[in-house]
From TrEMBL:
Its main location: membrane. Keywords: Membrane, Transmembrane, Transmembrane helix. It is a multi-pass membrane protein. GO terms for cellular component: membrane. Belongs to the major facilitator superfamily. Proton-dependent oligopeptide transporter (POT/PTR) (TC 2.A.17) family. This is Protein NRT1/ PTR FAMILY 4.3 isoform A. It is found in: Membrane. GO terms for molecular function: transmembrane transporter activity. It holds the Pfam family PTR2. The chain crosses the membrane at residues 42-66, 86-103, 110-129, 155-175, 196-215, 227-250, 346-368, 388-408, 429-449, 476-502, 514-535, 561-580.
Length: 600
């Protein structure tokens, strides 16, 4: 008996050392003392910081490159940037599915790093070779007829740009989930470390962004875009190599042929297939694997909820669907488990929250494009001999976030927890709401600042002044107000969304839940491009400039009215969010995960 107990203890200790569901680089079961953990995750945080360092300066300074070097009109350049950002974020969903289902997250990171560095290398070549760019011409000179990209030049440009978008999407999709793989959430100590990792992820984004918005932008403006692209290329290559060196130390998630997104699609297909069947009065008659079999197979179980009943038709068993115990399970495209249906209901109930976050990204897109052009017309002097590049202005919210994120996590959350009793201080939905109202305030401030900037230009007879060369007698730091408020909004809404999607997503979608945020941002960027075109078309005949945002002269268009419109749109979106969030029902799970709220 004693020997049995000793053997049992030995066996238990050995099981404790093994991480379930994870393997090492040779396919053997991963060991806790050898693989993963906080130290190894630093390589992943470093890679994420490097990726942001290489790309953030491009997102905020691309408009200057597209107008000044490629000779696109301002509105067209802004749309190219937002389309590029939108495609990049949208592709993250595709890459996440491929990574989780077929190639695995580690390989996805390495392949994406290679593709991103290739896109940046091609952009470097184009910026360096005069034969691949239009002849030098100042597009800001009135009546200047500057040649634009055409034919092979334009094809080369867009192939390079979207290789960059695809590679960036892969890193955004795979790095956070691969980092989370280094921790066992069932181990209390490692669960705390995982929380620290996600906080570190935001900090890594801010630190990488701070370098990008200062050093990279300085290189782009001072030494040229070929040097700027070249440094970004070198950074991605270096980051990918450093990440790859950690292979022997990683816990690697094994790719499964079953994917959570595909299972959600199966529910809708099966519900449509069974649309003519009547729902049983007792939900227990719906198809589900028996509890003892679920425990044996270690699969997820969700209790039935009386919402979105039309999806329950996917779990109605026909006589032809009943299978003997020794045969395979029914066709999942015709019959789904109750748990699978409930997971689809969870995703559907999250959809209104998802949609309300899109408008905020639409506003962010404007700050990343038009605000840089505003800054190029203003006085950029900090000292007598040093000027701040307009594209470096986002360093203000980024620098503030580097300070405020630890402050919020270590001081504000414990303080709020005493009053609310919620582990996170406030719920995820409350955090998102705070960010949404702050984004509304930010756009209102942006409209006021633009009125002041145009007033200075008009009072000094500088409506046709050349950007950069003839700055207005108004400091660029007036734009800091709108950036500052929006930076705080970022911290609340985007981090809140990340936590909300991760905590609410079904087990099979945990790894791709971070991509829900990227997807909402992608739709925001696409909507931004569409909105700019609609606004220009609608105001074409009622403004002397030919549209609120038409032409390259930002002093003569009506950006202030556009910002005011976005502020009103954001306010309406906030009230819609309040209505939706009050009616949202959390999935049945532990209150600590949902921030203290659970379905009653």
């Amino acid at each position: 008996m004693d020997t049995h107990v000793v053997d049992g203890n030995v066996e238990w200790m050995q099981e404790e050392k093994v991480v379930d569901g994870k393997v090492d680089w040779k396919g053997r079961r991963a060991l806790k003392h050898k693989h993963g953990g906080m130290k190894v995750s630093l390589l992943i945080l470093g890679a994420f910081a490097v990726e942001n360092m290489a790309t953030l300066s491009l997102a905020v300074n691309f408009v200057s490159y597209f107008t000044g070097i490629m000779h696109y009109e301002l509105a067209d350049a802004a749309n190219i940037v937002t389309d590029y950002m939108g495609v990049s974020y949208m592709l993250s969903i595709v890459v996440a599915v491929v990574a989780d289902t077929w190639i695995g997250r580690y390989k996805s990171v390495v392949i994406s790093g290679f593709i991103e560095s290739l896109g940046l290398a091609l952009l470097t070549v184009q910026a360096h070779m005069g034969s691949l760019t239009p002849p030098i011409c100042n597009v800001y000179v009135k009546d200047a007829h500057c040649a634009k990209l055409s034919g092979k030049q334009e094809a080369f440009f867009f192939i390079s740009l979207y290789l960059l978008a695809f590679g960036s999407a892969g890193l955004k999709a795979s790095l956070p989930s691969h980092g989370a793989d280094q921790f066992d959430e069932r181990d209390p100590k490692e669960a705390m470390q995982m929380s620290s990792f996600f906080n570190g992820l935001l900090l890594a984004v801010c630190i990488g962004g701070a370098v990008s918005l200062t050093f990279n932008v300085y290189i782009q403006d001072r030494y040229g875009w070929d040097w700027g692209f070249g440094i970004s290329t070198f950074a991605i290559v270096l980051g990918t190599i450093l990440f790859a060196f950690g292979l022997p130390l990683y816990r690697i998630h094994v790719a499964h042929t079953k994917n959570g997104i595909i299972e959600i699609i199966q529910v809708y297909v099966a519900a449509i297939h069974n649309r003519n069947l009547s729902l049983p009065e007792d939900p227990i008659e719906l198809y589900e694997i028996e509890q003892d079999k679920e425990a044996a197979m270690e699969i997820e179980h969700q209790p039935h909820r009386d919402i979105f009943r039309f999806l329950d038709k996917a779990a109605i068993q026909r006589k032809s669907d009943v299978q003997p115990e020794n045969q395979e399970t029914p066709n999942p495209w015709k019959l789904c488990r109750v748990t699978q249906v409930e997971n689809a209901k969870i995703i559907l109930s999250m959809l209104p929250i998802f949609c309300c976050s899109i408008i905020m990204t639409l506003c962010l897109a404007q700050l990343q494009t038009f605000s840089v052009q505003q800054g190029s017309t203003m006085d950029t002097r900090i000292t007598k001999h040093f000027n701040i590049p307009p594209a470096s202005l986002p360093i203000i919210p980024v620098g503030f976030l580097i300070i405020i994120v630890p402050f919020y996590d270590r001081i504000c959350v414990p303080f709020l927890r005493k009053f609310t009793g919620i582990p996170t201080g406030i719920t995820h939905l409350q955090r998102i709401g705070v960010g949404l109202i702050l984004s509304c305030i930010s756009m209102a401030i942006a409209a006021i600042i633009e009125v002041k900037r145009k007033g200075v230009a008009r009072d000094n007879n500088m409506l046709d002044a050349l950007p950069v060369k003839q700055p207005l007698p108004l400091s660029i730091f007036w734009l800091a107000f709108q950036y500052f408020i929006f930076g705080i909004a970022d911290m609340f809404t985007y981090v809140g969304l990340l936590e909300f999607f991760y905590s609410e997503a079904p087990k099979g979608l945990k790894s791709t839940s971070t991509c829900f945020l990227w997807c909402s941002m992608a739709l925001g960027y696409f909507l931004s491009s569409i909105l700019v075109k609609i606004v220009n078309s609608a105001t074409k005949n009622i403004t002397s400039s030919g549209g609120w945002l038409a032409g390259n002269n930002i002093n003569r268009n009506h950006l202030n009215l556009f910002y005011l419109f976005l502020s009103i749109l954001s306010l309406i979106n906030f009230f819609v969010y309040l209505f939706v969030s009050k009616r949202y029902k959390y999935r049945p799970q532990h209150p600590a995960v949902t921030g203290g709220n659970s379905e009653e």
